[in-house]
Amino acid sequence: MNKTLVAALVSTLLIAPSVSATEIFKDDVNAVQIGGFVDARVINTQGETEVVNGASRINFGFERQLQDGWKAYAKLEWGVNPVGSTDIVYNNRFESIQDEFFYNRLGYAGLSHDTYGSLTIGKQWGAWYDVVYGTNYGFVWDGNTAGVYTYNKDDGAVNGVGRGDKTVQYRNSFGDVSFAVQVQLKNSEFYTCDYEDITQDACVTLWESGSVEAQQVEYNYTYGGAVTYQATDKLVLTAGLNRGEFDVTFGNGNTSTAEDIIYGVGVTWGNFDQFGFYGSANINGNENHDTDNIGRLIDKAVGVESLFSYMFENKIRTFVSYNILNAGDDYVIQPNYNADPNDVFKRQFVVMGLHYVFNPETVVYLEARRDYSDFTSADKDQQARMELSEDDGVAIGIRYTL
């Protein structure tokens, strides 16, 4: 058993990738850490220039030494918006804007042992993230084609691939191989209708009237797993999958089931925060796993992410990333009476970045995005709304890590 690797796994759970933490209390039994960062930037995109929040956050990690080699730990993390609200529907992942100054990102508790591994319960990074996190290092436009930030670039909470809600997760390692398995234990039910601008109450009424254009959807348990192989001190290979299931009851009484599944592999060389070359790429196939930019469920798609960087001895780090999520045409799951089979969905963009790393905790950066997406539709208003959040852009900012 590789005890160092187990300890690293627990550290990864307590601290988000590439974010350090400062110990503010420690005795023979307990330790408390504070971490996170403030990221403020000026961005020009979607025809506007504005100061925006860069997914700033604060977190607290707690550890307690127990008997017989066991350790208890907990993590609490909140997103913060230090610059106020913004009119641009944007942040570092194009996720939905949070108007609150604080909002929940992570919250879990667990036990770990060098031999028996770790068990955590709560809102936490999903096992799928182990497969693809290596390309998720851009500050402004990071990955949204790897199947992590699902349902129109949200945080992946619903299906457990991002910061999964109500997740139970087990991790362990054997030599150079580590793994994670998880299950989401939740019960969720909602209604959806094939109309734009309809309220949930109106949709329920339509479903109760027996309309086939209204559906009751149950999306409950999910499960997933990932394997990581530390082939050398620099080369890491990953693989994994995640699965859920939609049970749909139409207003006319008909039923249908759709499988939400994603599977893929990744490869990473080096360390993004160290001098020299770093490279990472991953590929995934998915079905019923994500939505397009106006909320329609995508039947099947293939996603690829890649990121290559080099940090020079003078502390300048350059990088380029290429991302594509290609669903082709006729991609909207049926029945959906607002879908044209000729509609095309291909999210595709390149990001280039220049960072000056004063130290790992203080970085000034310039990043630019060039969009090559294809959202062709005969409905030009619909096409325009699809294109809105995929614009070119440029941003400068500073990230101050606590």
**How would you spell out the order of helices and strands?**
HEEEEEEEHHEEEHEEEEEEEEEHE
Output mean pLDDT: 88
Q: Would you identify the regions where 5 or more consecutive residues have pLDDT less than 50?
A: 1-18, 86-98
Portion in beta strands: over 45%
- Round the Cα radius of gyration to an integer and report it: 22 Å
The CATH top-level class label: Mainly Beta
CATH architecture: Beta Barrel
State the main characteristics.
single chain, 402 residues, mainly beta, Porin, 16-stranded antiparallel β-barrel, 53% strand
Explain what you see:
The chain is mainly beta and 402 residues long. It has a single domain (3-186, 221-401), classed as Porin (Beta Barrel). It contains five helices and 20 strands. The chain has helices at 3-14, 127-132, 150-153, 200-208, 380-387, and strands spanning 21-26, 30-45, 48-53, 57-65, 70-80, 102-113, 117-125, 163-174, 177-184, 189-193, 214-219, 222-230, 235-250, 255-269, 276-287, 300-311, 316-329, 344-359, 362-371, 393-401. A 16-stranded antiparallel β-barrel has the order 2-4-5-6-7-8-9-12-13-14-15-16-17-18-19-20. The longest helix has 12 residues, at 3-14. It is globular. The two termini are 33 Å apart. 40% of the residues are buried. The model is unreliable at 1-18 and 86-98 (pLDDT under 50).
Topology (SSEs and partners):
Elements: H1 3-14, E1 21-26, E2 30-45, E3 48-53, E4 57-65, E5 70-80, E6 102-113, E7 117-125, H2 127-132, H3 150-153, E8 163-174, E9 177-184, E10 189-193, H4 200-208, E11 214-219, E12 222-230, E13 235-250, E14 255-269, E15 276-287, E16 300-311, E17 316-329, E18 344-359, E19 362-371, H5 380-387, E20 393-401
Antiparallel strand pairs: 1-2, 2-3, 2-4, 2-20, 4-5, 5-6, 6-7, 7-8, 8-9, 9-12, 10-11, 11-13, 12-13, 13-14, 14-15, 15-16, 16-17, 17-18, 18-19, 19-20
